[in-house]
Design goal:
Elements: H1 2-7, H2 14-26, H3 37-46, E1 51-53, E2 56-57, H4 61-65, E3 80-88, E4 92-101, E5 104-114, E6 118-119, E7 122-123, H5 126-144, E8 146-148, E9 150-155, E10 161-170, H6 178-187, E11 197-209, E12 212-215, E13 225-236, H7 237-249, E14 253-259, H8 260-268, H9 271-276, E15 278-283, E16 288-294, E17 297-304, H10 308-319, H11 323-333, E18 346-349, E19 358-361, H12 362-387, E20 397-400, H13 409-417, E21 421-423, H14 442-452, H15 474-486
Parallel strand pairs: 3-9, 9-14, 15-20, 20-21
Antiparallel strand pairs: 1-2, 1-8, 3-4, 4-5, 6-7, 10-13, 11-12, 11-13, 15-16, 16-17, 18-19
Helix pairs in contact: 2-3, 5-7, 8-14, 10-11, 10-12, 12-13
The structure holds adenosine-5'-triphosphate and magnesium ion (MG).
Length: 487
């Protein structure tokens, strides 16, 4: 029940009620104007001592209420907030602490721990995942000097699917107000879904006012009929709940969930690429996360169940070497495109069962890697063609995720995808930029970029992702507490 209100959409407008409750609660009991909705909800979430510095609470209610829309100053001093993000990947867990504000994202600390508690982006061992979270959290805290209590968590796995939706309302006053935008977004979030699925993120795509299309900021316009197109990213409820469990058992409260494909796109894509059409592909260990953007909006999201682990497993089988040695060979000697390997290069392959190591041509390694990577790109190409957006991708493909680090990936991608491919690293990083020059950190960094979107003056409020309020209130909170005591 709690999850339904947390992630699902309420036909009764319950979420709207929750939001308003939260805002009134936070801003010293004064009802906040509806114009402050998007940012105020987030600041309310931040208001419960999300992070402490040197053991002292810094995300206090007072601090939270000092923000206003777009991070503008109400008390004349603050235009920033500190956020922590959690990326539960198939091969590693990352906790990142950053300051977000009008100046962008400044990373303060990062912790990373390897794990085998997930398969294809989905938790399969809570104990192992928690162990890795605690280590990553500890390292991030040490580096930044902040203690983490709350996180924005990424959700990955092949259960993540994007759907496009449409909603329509008629305005009462003839002029479109913020309340109308909220109503139409709610209408455009109503989508028939199986009971075991939830909406993770809701992104406005465009508005139509009296059938005039392509409107990004309808507030203040004259019009009777307001329509909204949205992109809804949905996921399996149990998989999301398991991320929540891992976080809570690590002493972390999740203030918001963001789908991993969206986070990595926000980390690496340039606004002009999103405008002319681009596909972001995050090739991780267990999954390939794909998003397609045109005219600045997200139009397609999906996750394929293929990543670097299948390449490692192919090498292990093909060269008859243990998985750990195959992984090391792939990282140190692997090249995605055979013609980039100089003739005469050799590799030493550790054998199993006490047999002597083998010396092979490096081409033997590439002959295993290249067909598998080409096959993964083939799946991606098929997915792009299936969407019908293939001709709209003037910006080509931006490849990120740990597996993007293999030499030759962009060159092979150019041919296999029939689109120009570039490697995407976290962009505009302030603070610890050298540590962030790693495509495997795109999701953790992108979650912080997501948190900073309300501060970005270039994005009108009506185009911001609709905040999903995860904090249960009133009877829901009571029921949750009872459940926590009983179970
Ligand atoms: N230099 C390299 N060459 C080839 N592959 C690499 C290199 N460095 C890392 N990888 C691969 O990147 C993968 C890890 O990437 P990443 O950290 O993005 O995945 P993840 O977030 O843990 O998993 P997922 O996103 O699929 O859930 C591993 O399979 C690893 O072998
Ligand atoms: Mg990942």
């Amino acid at each position: 029940m709690w999850l339904q209100s947390t992630f699902g959409l309420s036909a009764t407008g319950r979420e709207d009620e929750l939001s308003k409750e939260g805002i009134e609660d936070c801003v010293s009991g004064k009802p906040a104007s509806r114009e402050n909705l998007y940012s105020a909800v987030r600041q309310c979430q931040q208001g419960n001592c999300a992070i402490q510095r040197a053991g002292k609470p810094c995300g206090s209610r007072k601090t939270a209420s000092s923000f206003s829309k777009k991070g503008g100053v109400m008390n004349g001093s603050r235009k920033k907030e500190i956020v922590a993000t959690l990326d539960l990947g198939t091969s590693k867990v990352v906790v990142l602490i950053a300051e977000v504000g009008e100046d962008g994202v400044s990373v303060l600390g990062i912790g990373r721990a390897e794990t085998d508690g997930l398969r294809r982006g989905v938790v399969i061992s809570i104990g192992k995942a928690v162990e890795a979270i605690l280590k990553a959290k500890h390292d991030a805290e040490q580096m930044s000097g902040y203690l983490v209590r709350e996180v924005i968590a990424g959700v990955g796995g092949t259960h993540i699917v994007g759907v496009n939706n449409h909603g329509m309302i008629t305005t009462k006053m003839g002029e479109i107000r913020v309340a109308d935008v909220e109503r139409v977004l709610e209408a455009a979030s109503m989508v028939p879904m199986q009971m075991d699925r939830s909406i993770v993120n809701c992104l406005p795509v465009q508005y139509l006012v009296d059938e005039h299309e392509g409107i990004r900021d309808p507030v203040g316009m004259s019009g009777v009929r307001l329509e909204a197109y949205t992109h809804l990213i949905t996921g399996a409820r149990t998989a999301i709940e398991n991320v929540l469990k891992c976080a809570e058992r690590s002493g972390l409260r999740v203030v918001e969930f963001v789908a991993n494909p969206l986070a990595s796109a926000l980390a690496v894509l340039e606004p002009n690429e999103m405008e002319i059409g681009v596909c972001c592909l995050d090739l991780g260990a267990g999954t390939a996360d794909l998003t397609i953007w045109t005219q600045g909006s997200l139009l397609h999201t999906c996750v394929l169940g293929a990543g670097g682990q299948v390449i490692t497993s192919d090498i292990s089988t093909g060269l008859r070497t243990p998985l750990a040695c195959a992984e090391e060979l792939k990282i140190k000697q692997g090249v995605a495109l055979g013609r980039l390997v100089p003739d005469g290069d050799t590799i030493e392959v550790p054998a199993v069962g006490g047999r002597p190591n083998k010396k092979l041509s490096r081409h033997a390694l590439t002959e295993i890697i290249e067909p598998r990577v080409a096959e993964i790109f083939g799946l991606v190409r098929r997915e792009i063609l299936k969407t019908g957006y293939g001709d709209l991708l003037a910006g080509g493909v931006v490849l990120t995720g740990g597996s993007a680090q293999m030499p030759g990936m962009a060159e092979l991608g150019d041919v296999a995808l029939n689109l120009p491919v570039r490697i995407g690293l976290p962009k505009n990083v302030k603070g610890l930029p050298s540590l962030l020059q790693d495509p495997a950190l795109s999701v953790a960094y992108g979650l912080a970029v997501y948190a900073g979107l309300p501060y970005n003056a270039a994005i009108p409020n009506s185009m911001l992702p609709v905040r999903r309020l995860n904090k249960p209130k009133g009877i829901l909170q009571f029921l949750r507490r009872v459940a926590a005591v009983l179970f």
